[in-house]
Amino acid sequence: MNVLEEALALQDDHRLAARIATAAGDALNAIRASAVLAGKPLGAVGDATANELIARIIGHARPDDGFLSEEFAPDPKRLSCDRVWIIDPLDGTREYGERIEGRSDWAVHVALTVGGMPDACAVALPALGMTFATGSPATLPAAPQGRLKILVSRTRAPELARKVAERLDAELVPMGSAGAKAMAVVRGEAHAYLHAGGQYEWDSCAPVGVALAAGLHASRIDGSPCVYNGADAAMPDLLICRREIAESMLGVIAASQ
């Protein structure tokens, strides 16, 4: 049974999201291992291949659902749908392209939203052979020892994060993909992931769904919930952190703006 046949047989959305993310990750690993390309050309091939695979499977398995992908122009028809799949076929394209360096901080995001809220979500970390999904939420490990660790963008760490870190005497840890950063908090490698200054719904939807299912806090930086399938796909800020520090993090964020 191939991946499409398997997907068509899956009635459970959570299992479907996980299977799609894993299959796209497997395809990306195969491309990366065999490619003579690197950098932006490799990223472009990976993006296109994973996007086509995911779109084809969802189109066959859930033909009545809406669809939003980083790689397609937004379809306004999705705005009238209660169920909408929001995907990023390759989050962390830059890191994926750095295959010679062996970077693993790139991901596949597959999320089903219902009424604008993340429902069945999966984040695959293909280079690590791991998929995190809402159908079987991860068991949250103990918090890291030592100073508070806050994950930020590898290439554009927000000034807000620097101010928050100074107030909390925290360590800023740069990392690639938003999905990789969110899953690092799920895995107990850091206390929080803070972003401000520009993202889209596909960057955060699946990570937020998986983080919430694992028992973490996930919100906008003003504490409001992350609501998806908006007419404008921009969602410029995000906080994912352990629940025990959420109140203090949000307070310091507010004071630092």
From TrEMBL:
E.C. numbers: 3.1.3.7
InterPro entries for this protein: CysQ/Inositol_MonoPase, Inositol_monophosphatase-like
Pfam family, one: Inositol_P
Name of the molecule in the record: 3'(2'),5'-bisphosphate nucleotidase CysQ
SUPFAM superfamilies: Carbohydrate phosphatase
Keywords from the UniProt entry: Hydrolase
An example Gene Ontology molecular-function term: 3'(2'),5'-bisphosphate nucleotidase activity
Enzyme's top EC category: hydrolase
Keyword Protein biosynthesis: no
